[in-house]
Amino acid sequence: MPFPNTVHYGWPAGFPGAWASQNPQRMVVPGANGFCAGAGGVAVAAFAWVQADGTTVLNKPDPANPKATPTGFVVRAQQGQATQYMQQNTMTIAQGFMVGLAEGGDVFAQATTASATGQAVYASLSDGTLQCAAAGAAPTGTVDTGWSVAQGAAAGLPFIITGPLAGARSALSSTSGTGN
Hints:
Elements: E1 26-27, E2 36-37, E3 42-43, E4 47-50, E5 56-58, E6 72-74, E7 92-93, E8 101-110, E9 120-124, E10 130-133, E11 142-151, E12 158-163, H1 171-174
Protein backbone atom coordinates (compact mmCIF):
# COMPACT_ATOMS: atom_id res chain seq x y z
CA MET A 1 0.00 0.00 0.00
CA PRO A 2 1.54 3.34 -0.99
CA PHE A 3 2.06 6.14 1.50
CA PRO A 4 -1.14 8.27 1.80
CA ASN A 5 -0.81 11.49 -0.19
CA THR A 6 -4.25 13.06 0.25
CA VAL A 7 -6.52 13.89 3.14
CA HIS A 8 -10.29 13.67 2.83
CA TYR A 9 -12.08 15.95 5.26
CA GLY A 10 -15.52 14.61 4.46
CA TRP A 11 -16.10 10.91 3.89
CA PRO A 12 -18.94 9.97 1.54
CA ALA A 13 -22.19 8.80 3.12
CA GLY A 14 -21.62 5.36 1.63
CA PHE A 15 -19.75 3.34 -0.95
CA PRO A 16 -21.16 2.16 -4.30
CA GLY A 17 -22.67 -1.30 -4.04
CA ALA A 18 -23.23 -1.17 -0.26
CA TRP A 19 -26.67 -1.34 1.36
CA ALA A 20 -27.85 2.15 2.28
CA SER A 21 -30.47 1.18 4.86
CA GLN A 22 -31.99 -1.71 6.72
CA ASN A 23 -35.29 -1.29 4.90
CA PRO A 24 -36.43 -4.52 3.23
CA GLN A 25 -33.56 -5.89 1.16
CA ARG A 26 -34.45 -8.33 -1.60
CA MET A 27 -32.06 -10.55 -3.49
CA VAL A 28 -32.71 -12.44 -6.72
CA VAL A 29 -33.06 -16.12 -5.82
CA PRO A 30 -30.86 -18.21 -8.14
CA GLY A 31 -31.53 -21.70 -9.40
CA ALA A 32 -29.85 -24.82 -8.01
CA ASN A 33 -26.44 -23.89 -9.48
CA GLY A 34 -26.42 -20.32 -8.14
CA PHE A 35 -25.18 -17.34 -10.13
CA CYS A 36 -21.56 -17.01 -11.26
CA ALA A 37 -19.63 -14.30 -13.05
CA GLY A 38 -19.14 -14.86 -16.77
CA ALA A 39 -16.19 -14.16 -19.05
CA GLY A 40 -14.28 -11.06 -18.00
CA GLY A 41 -15.97 -10.93 -14.59
CA VAL A 42 -18.82 -8.76 -13.30
CA ALA A 43 -18.55 -5.18 -12.03
CA VAL A 44 -19.87 -4.51 -8.53
CA ALA A 45 -22.24 -1.50 -8.13
CA ALA A 46 -23.61 -1.94 -11.66
CA PHE A 47 -26.64 -3.70 -13.09
CA ALA A 48 -26.29 -7.23 -14.43
CA TRP A 49 -28.23 -9.76 -16.45
CA VAL A 50 -28.53 -13.50 -15.97
CA GLN A 51 -27.74 -15.10 -19.32
CA ALA A 52 -29.77 -17.77 -21.17
CA ASP A 53 -28.15 -20.65 -19.25
CA GLY A 54 -29.74 -19.38 -16.00
CA THR A 55 -26.40 -19.33 -14.16
CA THR A 56 -23.94 -16.99 -15.90
CA VAL A 57 -24.14 -13.29 -15.01
CA LEU A 58 -22.72 -10.44 -17.11
CA ASN A 59 -22.99 -6.64 -17.05
CA LYS A 60 -24.78 -6.78 -20.40
CA PRO A 61 -27.93 -8.51 -21.62
CA ASP A 62 -28.02 -11.89 -23.33
CA PRO A 63 -27.58 -11.41 -27.13
CA ALA A 64 -30.90 -13.22 -27.68
CA ASN A 65 -32.72 -10.45 -25.78
CA PRO A 66 -30.59 -7.29 -26.19
CA LYS A 67 -33.10 -4.83 -24.64
CA ALA A 68 -34.03 -6.92 -21.57
CA THR A 69 -34.45 -5.32 -18.17
CA PRO A 70 -31.50 -6.14 -15.88
CA THR A 71 -31.97 -9.06 -13.50
CA GLY A 72 -30.57 -7.08 -10.57
CA PHE A 73 -28.00 -4.74 -9.09
CA VAL A 74 -24.62 -6.25 -8.11
CA VAL A 75 -24.15 -5.51 -4.40
CA ARG A 76 -20.94 -5.56 -2.38
CA ALA A 77 -20.80 -8.83 -0.51
CA GLN A 78 -17.03 -9.30 -0.22
CA GLN A 79 -16.93 -11.26 -3.44
CA GLY A 80 -14.40 -9.07 -5.30
CA GLN A 81 -11.00 -10.76 -5.50
CA ALA A 82 -7.69 -8.91 -5.82
CA THR A 83 -6.20 -11.14 -8.54
CA GLN A 84 -3.24 -9.04 -9.71
CA TYR A 85 0.05 -8.98 -7.83
CA MET A 86 0.11 -6.05 -5.37
CA GLN A 87 -3.41 -4.97 -6.34
CA GLN A 88 -4.97 -2.95 -3.51
CA ASN A 89 -8.64 -3.34 -4.30
CA THR A 90 -11.12 -4.31 -6.96
CA MET A 91 -14.76 -3.77 -7.83
CA THR A 92 -14.84 -6.81 -10.12
CA ILE A 93 -16.06 -10.29 -9.30
CA ALA A 94 -13.68 -12.67 -11.09
CA GLN A 95 -15.01 -15.11 -13.69
CA GLY A 96 -16.50 -18.21 -12.10
CA PHE A 97 -17.07 -16.66 -8.67
CA MET A 98 -20.54 -16.36 -7.13
CA VAL A 99 -22.58 -13.18 -7.72
CA GLY A 100 -25.27 -11.63 -5.51
CA LEU A 101 -27.97 -9.60 -7.28
CA ALA A 102 -30.30 -7.22 -5.43
CA GLU A 103 -33.80 -6.78 -6.84
CA GLY A 104 -35.06 -4.38 -4.19
CA GLY A 105 -34.00 -2.26 -1.25
CA ASP A 106 -31.88 0.86 -0.78
CA VAL A 107 -28.35 0.70 -2.20
CA PHE A 108 -25.53 3.19 -2.71
CA ALA A 109 -24.64 3.62 -6.37
CA GLN A 110 -22.63 5.88 -8.65
CA ALA A 111 -23.76 7.28 -12.00
CA THR A 112 -22.17 8.97 -14.97
CA THR A 113 -24.90 11.64 -14.77
CA ALA A 114 -26.15 13.85 -11.95
CA SER A 115 -29.08 12.36 -10.06
CA ALA A 116 -32.07 13.95 -8.37
CA THR A 117 -34.58 12.41 -5.98
CA GLY A 118 -37.42 10.75 -7.88
CA GLN A 119 -35.59 10.25 -11.18
CA ALA A 120 -35.60 6.87 -12.88
CA VAL A 121 -32.42 4.78 -12.96
CA TYR A 122 -31.28 3.43 -16.33
CA ALA A 123 -28.62 0.79 -17.04
CA SER A 124 -26.21 0.91 -19.95
CA LEU A 125 -26.78 -2.03 -22.30
CA SER A 126 -23.02 -2.32 -22.87
CA ASP A 127 -21.66 -2.44 -19.30
CA GLY A 128 -24.49 -2.05 -16.74
CA THR A 129 -23.33 1.36 -15.50
CA LEU A 130 -25.99 3.77 -14.26
CA GLN A 131 -27.49 6.91 -15.71
CA CYS A 132 -30.37 8.90 -14.21
CA ALA A 133 -33.10 10.83 -16.02
CA ALA A 134 -36.81 11.55 -15.85
CA ALA A 135 -39.09 8.52 -16.01
CA GLY A 136 -39.80 7.57 -19.62
CA ALA A 137 -36.81 9.51 -20.96
CA ALA A 138 -34.24 6.73 -21.29
CA PRO A 139 -30.82 7.96 -22.42
CA THR A 140 -29.54 6.40 -25.65
CA GLY A 141 -28.11 2.91 -25.16
CA THR A 142 -29.83 2.31 -21.82
CA VAL A 143 -32.84 0.43 -20.46
CA ASP A 144 -35.14 1.30 -17.55
CA THR A 145 -34.26 -0.74 -14.47
CA GLY A 146 -37.43 -0.17 -12.45
CA TRP A 147 -35.29 1.44 -9.72
CA SER A 148 -35.46 5.13 -8.77
CA VAL A 149 -33.26 7.72 -7.06
CA ALA A 150 -33.98 8.00 -3.33
CA GLN A 151 -31.27 10.59 -2.60
CA GLY A 152 -29.45 12.33 -5.45
CA ALA A 153 -25.89 13.61 -5.93
CA ALA A 154 -23.59 15.10 -8.55
CA ALA A 155 -22.25 12.89 -11.33
CA GLY A 156 -19.58 10.49 -10.07
CA LEU A 157 -20.55 10.79 -6.39
CA PRO A 158 -22.31 8.10 -4.35
CA PHE A 159 -26.10 8.42 -4.17
CA ILE A 160 -28.92 6.14 -3.06
CA ILE A 161 -31.17 4.15 -5.37
CA THR A 162 -34.21 2.23 -4.27
CA GLY A 163 -35.66 -0.83 -5.89
CA PRO A 164 -39.25 -1.94 -5.99
CA LEU A 165 -40.66 -3.58 -2.87
CA ALA A 166 -42.23 -6.45 -4.78
CA GLY A 167 -40.94 -7.71 -8.10
CA ALA A 168 -42.78 -9.50 -10.84
CA ARG A 169 -42.54 -13.26 -10.75
CA SER A 170 -39.63 -14.34 -12.89
CA ALA A 171 -39.42 -17.41 -15.09
CA LEU A 172 -36.52 -18.65 -12.92
CA SER A 173 -38.48 -18.52 -9.65
CA SER A 174 -41.63 -20.01 -11.13
CA THR A 175 -39.76 -23.09 -12.34
CA SER A 176 -37.42 -23.61 -9.42
CA GLY A 177 -39.76 -25.87 -7.49
CA THR A 178 -39.96 -23.51 -4.50
CA GLY A 179 -43.71 -23.06 -4.75
CA ASN A 180 -43.47 -19.44 -5.92
